[in-house]
Amino acid sequence: MSGPTIPISSITIPSMVILGSFLFCAKGIVVKLMFAEGLTPSGVMALRMLTATPVFMIMLALRWKNISKISRKDWGLMALLSFAGYFLCSLLNMTGLQYVSVGLERVILFSYPSIVLAGSILFQGARPSGKMYAACGLSWVGLTLIIREEISFAGDASLILLGSSLVLLSAIIYAGYILVAKPVIQRIGVPLYTGITMVFCAITILSYFSVNDGNFRSLFSSNIVIGYGAAIGIFGTVIPLLMLSYALSRINTSSYAIISSIGPVATILIATIYVGKMPEGLQLLGVLLSVAGGLLATKQGRPPKPKLQPAKA
Questions:
Q1: Secondary-structure breakdown of the chain: helix, strand, coil percentages, each rounded to the nearest 5
Q2: DSSP code of 278?
Q3: Contact at 8 Å (CB) between 135 and 297?
Q4: What is the C-alpha separation between 196 and 194, in angstroms, rounded?
Q5: How far is CA 19 from its chain centroid?
Q6: CA distance linking residue 295 with residue 139, whole number of Å
Q7: pLDDT of the chain along its 313 residues, tens only?
Q8: pTM, two decimal places
Q9: Between vectors from CA 47 to CA 45 and to CA 50, what angle results, nearest 5°?
């Protein structure tokens, strides 16, 4: 049976979404620091999973007796969600971070709520309002301005566009993950779902690193690298995953997407403080437009009702 849906006005669930989203978003800053220490994207992913997987294995062991109740369909869905929602999204995002700033990466990912809402329109029969079209338009115009300014500062348009495209593709895939994962999490439960999918993900990532790089010694080259790995594994993976998975099982996908868009905004501010330079001119206008689009989406009120008949209780 699925758990009861907690009203969006409840402070606990929205707070979990905001904090979990912020922790997920803030990991981009740590990833940049790990790149500076000489790690590759696959190396960052491998060290992240090496520090996080023991926790997920403990969670899985505590729910071991419930594994036999999982259907073959849900096993297949969890394998797919693990590969697409965790491994592929992480690979695309971290590869893209090699070519763009943390601020630009966050603004691009800030667009994923509109992607989730678009998916609910296409696949769940929801009807968008004029306000929702305006919100999406603001977000995408702002994103275009930011990418344009980033290119003018960096000077290498091809690399900026490559990095932006990779991060955007990651956002699109993650939006699809949000739409598909909710019913699976509700059927299986947060601890068991998270444990299984992340163990799947760890196997995939470590296998990829073995083939693509294979230098496991580089993951432990210094105490600083190990410290970054522990930080991104626990505070950038375990804690936000549990928070967001639980929240997603309790509220609808549109509300989840809109609330979690606050996380990237906070991370943009932290990133600008870290770099020591606030956005100016068209770049600042682009950030404001993107943020305005996300905030306008929050004024949508209740999520649009699908055309399909609601399921009987």
A1: 80, 0, 20
A2: -
A3: yes
A4: 6
A5: 13
A6: 10
A7: 444 444 444 577 777 877 887 787 778 788 888 998 989 999 999 999 999 999 989 988 888 888 988 999 999 999 999 999 889 998 998 899 888 877 677 667 766 666 766 776 666 666 666 776 777 777 777 767 766 766 666 656 788 888 888 988 998 888 888 778 888 988 998 888 988 999 999 999 999 999 988 888 889 989 999 999 999 999 988 898 888 878 777 766 666 666 666 666 666 666 666 655 556 677 677 777 766 766 665 555 444 444 433 334 3
A8: 0.72
A9: 110
Distance between CA atoms of residues 282 and 80, nearest Å? 40
Q: Enter the tokens of residue 172.
A: 């699109």
DSSP assignment of 76-145 equals HHHHHHIIIIIIIHHHHHHHHTTTS-HHHHHHHHTTHHHHHHHHHHHHH-----HHHHHHHHHHHHHHHH
Provide CB contacts within 8 A for 197, sequence distance 6+: 78, 81, 82, 85, 86
**CB hemisphere CA count around 192 (13 angstroms):** 16
Task: Tell me the C-alpha distance between 178 and 3, whole Å.
Answer: 17
How far is CA 117 from each of CA 85, 125, 164, rounded to the nearest angstrom? 17, 11, 21
| Residue whose entry in the numeric block shows the structure tokens 């600083």 | 224
Q: Which of 172, 256, 209, 180 lies closest to 50, judged by CA?
A: 209
Backbone torsion region of residue 276, taken as left when φ is above 0, otherwise alpha when ψ lies between -120 and 50, otherwise beta? left
Tokens, residue 75: 């096993």
